[in-house]
Design a protein that fits this description.
Layout (H helix, E strand, L loop, with lengths): L1 E5 L4 E7 L2 H11 L8 E4 L6 E4 L7 E2 L13
Antiparallel strand pairs: 1-2, 2-3, 3-4, 4-5
Length: about 70
């Protein structure tokens, strides 16, 4: 995990690489030729932002179904 500036959170957060399901969703939205192997996602709770490693301008948001909420306390 690496720390980057998230433009939707307006803060520094950890970013992780997209998993296979997230990559498939981006490819479905952007087209089969869209390069998805260097996309990183903000790991902040509830954030859907993803971007290439070096460019925030190339980013976008994942579909709502990928929103990660906090786990309920046990």
């Amino acid at each position: 995990m690496t720390h980057k500036w998230c433009p939707t959170c307006r803060a520094w957060h950890g970013f992780r690489k997209l998993n296979a399901e997230e990559k498939a969703a981006v490819r479905a939205a952007k087209g089969d030729r869209h390069y998805v192997d260097d996309l990183w996602r903000c790991s902040a709770e509830g954030c859907l932002w993803y971007q290439p490693y070096f460019h925030t301008r190339g980013g976008d948001v994942l579909p709502e179904r990928f929103r990660e909420e906090a786990a309920a306390p046990e």
